[in-house]
Structure formats: structure tokens, C-alpha cells
Write a structure and sequence with these properties.
Length: 501
């Protein structure tokens, strides 16, 4: 088989190209999604910076307990219909009414369940009656979300990325504006509760303007069963995913206190910001993209390697740079009261790299119609995590929690890579090549920044910004030199994208 760059390029985009030039849509759409994620994370970042100076860690922790309760109420009743609709190759409009009807009935039920059962149980679990009030207020979110037009998921399937960006930004803007105004007046977690309600309300309203299809209250048992055959694994995966992604929050909230949960959640948000968000943005595109080429294993292999190479070239130095400047970053961004989160931040920065890999691998298994793989691996991860998290948290506090999550993520990614090797013949040598040069460049950059701190300490914002710029220059200079020495793989991957925009 000819695996030269021009042949791979023609085959890769030829597999997606239709009369509407889908290959062009994919690449342009990817940049739109990146732009969207950048704007969204920038807005959330600004929001968090403002709130961190208006509210206290305990306020974030109390709200976190309420949202955990809401999520836990929902997670056991996921149907996975949205993922099933995305995975289907044929036109799916005939399924939309059934999917919307199921979602509406389910959400009304969930609202009652949270108000009458979930909220009181949360108060007992966290030993905090204030959580009951916040959780009950959030029950209205389920009802609002139930009326959202389900056809908006077709924006992703049809690669109408410009409309998807408008839709996604509408809810975020409503949330950010609401929370900042409310926090200035209320100075309490109620500002965060009102923001979530504003977010879902905006999404529900805009969903009827962004896509022409109008759902009707209609149920077809045959179509529901067909969707459930795929969606059940997504639903089961969602339960395990909650335990893996938010089980640590439950443990911190239960074994420690609201302030510790606030510290841990903000450390998690900051630590995963550079690495996970880039991979998550790509994941939204990779699922339908891999579904289109699911029958060509060699093309899947090539695509995964090229995409991963570019992603890790960006996220490894970002995580290493933040690790070197962690204390200064937290002080400048959130304020001195948040410095106790720095030790656990170091652990989370390592975890973020594994999570980024997760966001690159899982869309591939979803795209080839094997969601069961990710579900089983998540189950293994949850078992490992919960076998470690309670004793480690009791002994080492938040750092112990982070270490338990890190260990379980390592096990999960190891298993996923073994499965990936079987599915697309991914070799260990290829994986080493993906991370080797970025790792050398990042270590060089981190060492330079670390020793520079003994000469000029970044204790003012201008010097801190100068450190960030210097780190970027050092890293990309090293990567450029190494890439030219070892075959220009990163340059080739960039050209691959540029020639198909």
C-alpha cells in the first residue's frame, strides 16, 4: 500500500468528499469549533476570575454539591439517543419525534425526582441543609431542557458548524452575563444557580430558531428500540463516566468540606484548561468524521496519528509551562485566597494529558460503532479509582484524591491503547513518535523557565506574561530544530491541514 504523504492526503479527504465537498467542511468546521471553544473557555475563564474574587471557596463547593446532586439524579436515566442519531449514516428525521418525546417525559420525571428525593438525600449525604435549597432550585433546569428542540444535534451530524457555534455561544453568553451581574448583587452561590437556569433557557429558546425542524409529541416503540440498541451502551457509559469524572468531587465533598471541594474543582478547571479543552474540541468533530471512514482501518490509523501529533505538540508544553508557573498563575488569576489549591494542581496537570488522550481515542471507538469498548474501560477505571480514592483522600487530602484519579486514568488509557492497537494496528513506535519531540521541547522550556526564576522572579503581571512568551518561543524553537532533524513530521501534518482548507 502506498503510504506516501500525497496518497494519504488524497485518500483521507477523498473518503469524506461528497458533492458538497465534505472534506473542506470538516477542516473549516474544525477551525470554527476551535474558535468556539476558545471563546467559550475565555468567557468561562473571565467569569471564574471575577467570581473567585467575589465568592469564597466554600461558595463554589456548595454549588458543586448541588450540581453533583442534579447530575447524579440524571445519570441513571440516560438513553443515549443523541449519540445513536449521530452514529446513523442515513437520514434520521423520522426518529426525532420519538427521541424528543422520550427526552421530555424523562426530564419532567427527573425534575420531580430531584426536588422530592435527590435534594433531601444530598443534604444528608453532605451534612449541609443549604445544599437542599440549591438542588431543589436546579430541578427547574430539567423541565426547561426537556423542551429543547432535539434537532439541534443534526447541526453536528450535517457539519453545519457555523450554526452550531451560534447555538453553543448563546447559552454561554446568557450564563456568563447572568452570573456576573447576580454575583455583584448577591455575593452568594445563588448567582451560580441563576446562571445555570439562564444557560438552559437560552439553549431551549435558540434551538427553535437555529434549525427548521419542529418536534411533535409522538412515540414510536419500534424506532425507540432501534435507537436504544446503540444508545444503551452510551447510557451505561454515562453512569460509569459520572463515577470516573465526578466521583472524586463526591468523595472530596463528603470526606473533606465545601471549601476543599471549591479548591479542588477550580484546580481541576485550571489544570485541564490547556490540554483537555483542545482535545475535547477535536472530539466533537472526530466522532462524525471517524464514522464516515469507519470501514478503512488504515485510514483511521493515519488520521489518528496525524491528529494526535498536532494536539500533543500543543498540550504538552502548555501543561509543563503551567506547572512551572503554577503558584504565580493562581495568585494572579484567582487571588491569594486560592493558593491552597496549588499542590493538587500539579497532579491534575499530569492527569490532563491522559484525559486529552481519552478525548482523542473515544470518538474513534464511537465512530466505528463500538461504544461498548469505552464503557468497559470506564468501568475498570471506576473500580481502580474507588479502590484507591477513599484511603488516599483520608490520608493525603485533595492530593490523595488527585493521585487516585491519576492512577485510574493511567490504567484506563493503557487498556484503550491496547484495544486501539487491535482495531487500527497502532504500533507502540508510532505512539512514541507522537510525544517524543514535544516532550523534549517541553522539558527544555520548563528547565529554562525554572532556572530563570532564580534570576528574575515573576512577581508582577508584566514579568509573568513575559515568562509565558519566552516559554512559547523556547519551546517552538526547540521543536522546529528537532522536527527538521527527525523528518519534519509536524511540518508535514501542518501542510496536510493547510492544503485542504
Amino acid at each position: 500500500m502506498d503510504l506516501s504523504f500525497p496518497n494519504i492526503q488524497r485518500k483521507f479527504f477523498g473518503a469524506w468528499r461528497t458533492s458538497d465537498q465534505t472534506g473542506q467542511q470538516v477542516v473549516r468546521g474544525s477551525f470554527l469549533i476551535f474558535f468556539e471553544r476558545f471563546v467559550i473557555k475565555a468567557l468561562y475563564f473571565i467569569r471564574t476570575v471575577i467570581l473567585a474574587r467575589l465568592l469564597f471557596p466554600a461558595d463554589f463547593g456548595l454549588f458543586g454539591m448541588a450540581t453533583l446532586t442534579m447530575t447524579l439524579t440524571e445519570v441513571f436515566f440516560q438513553h443515549g439517543f443523541a449519540s445513536a442519531l449521530l452514529q446513523k449514516k442515513e437520514n434520521v428525521e423520522k426518529y426525532l419525534d420519538t427521541a424528543w418525546t422520550v427526552a421530555l417525559v424523562r426530564n419532567v420525571f427527573l425534575a420531580g425526582l430531584l426536588f422530592f428525593v435527590g435534594a433531601p438525600l444530598a443534604g444528608q449525604f453532605f451534612d449541609n441543609e443549604t445544599v437542599v435549597l440549591f438542588a431543589r432550585a436546579l430541578s427547574i433546569v430539567f423541565i426547561i431542557s426537556g423542551f429543547e428542540n432535539i434537532s439541534v444535534i443534526l447541526l453536528q451530524k450535517e457539519m453545519r458548524f457555523n450554526r452550531k457555534v451560534v447555538y453553543d455561544l448563546s447559552g454561554v453568553l446568557a450564563e456568563v452575563v447572568t452570573v456576573i451581574i447576580a454575583a455583584l448583587f448577591l455575593r452568594s452561590p445563588w448567582a451560580l444557580v441563576l446562571a445555570i437556569i439562564a444557560n438552559r433557557s437560552a439553549y431551549a429558546i435558540i434551538s427553535y430558531f437555529i434549525y427548521p425542524y419542529r418536534p411533535h409529541f409522538r412515540f414510536d416503540w419500534g424506532k425507540a428500540k432501534e435507537l436504544f440498541r446503540f444508545g444503551k451502551w452510551v447510557g451505561i457509559s454515562g453512569i460509569v463516566l459520572f463515577l470516573v469524572n465526578q466521583g472524586d468531587y463526591l468523595v472530596v465533598g463528603k470526606l473533606l468540606d465545601a471549601s476543599s471541594l471549591g479548591f479542588y474543582q477550580l484546580a481541576f478547571a485550571l489544570g485541564t484548561l490547556p490540554a483537555v479543552e483542545l482535545a475535547r474540541s477535536l472530539g466533537n468533530i472526530l466522532f462524525p468524521l471517524y464514522a464516515k471512514i469507519q470501514n478503512d482501518r488504515q485510514l483511521l490509523n493515519t488520521s489518528f496519528i496525524r491528529i494526535s501529533r498536532l494536539v500533543f505538540a500543543l498540550i504538552i508544553p502548555a501543561s509543563f509551562g503551567l506547572a512551572v508557573l503554577a503558584k504565580e498563575a493562581v495568585g494572579f488569576v484567582y487571588g491569594e485566597r486560592w493558593l491552597p489549591m496549588v499542590p493538587v494542581l500539579y497532579v491534575i496537570l499530569l492527569l490532563a494529558l491522559l484525559k486529552a488522550l481519552d478525548f482523542l481515542i473515544n470518538p474513534l471507538f464511537m465512530g466505528i460503532g463500538k461504544p461498548k469498548v469505552t464503557t468497559v474501560v470506564l468501568a475498570v477505571q471506576s473500580v481502580v479509582m474507588f479502590s484507591l480514592i477513599i484511603p488516599l483522600t483520608q490520608k493525603y487530602g485533595m492530593i490523595g484524591t488527585g493521585l487516585a484519579v491519576l492512577a485510574s486514568s493511567f490504567v484506563a488509557e493503557f487498556i484503550l491503547l491496547l484495544k486501539l492497537r487491535k482495531e487500527i494496528n497502532l504500533k507502540l513506535r508510532a505512539l512514541i513518535k507522537i510525544v517524543a519531540l514535544p516532550l523534549v521541547g517541553s522539558l527544555t522550556m520548563a528547565a529554562a523557565l525554572y532556572f530563570s526564576k532564580s534570576i528574575i522572579f515573576p512577581n508582577t503581571l508584566p514579568i509573568f506574561i513575559l515568562y509565558i512568551a519566552a516559554g512559547a518561543i523556547i519551546y517552538f524553537a526547540v521543536l522546529f530544530v528537532l522536527d527538521n532533524i527527525f523528518g519534519r513530521r509536524f511540518y508535514e501534518s501542518l501542510i496536510w491541514i493547510k492544503k485542504n482548507i
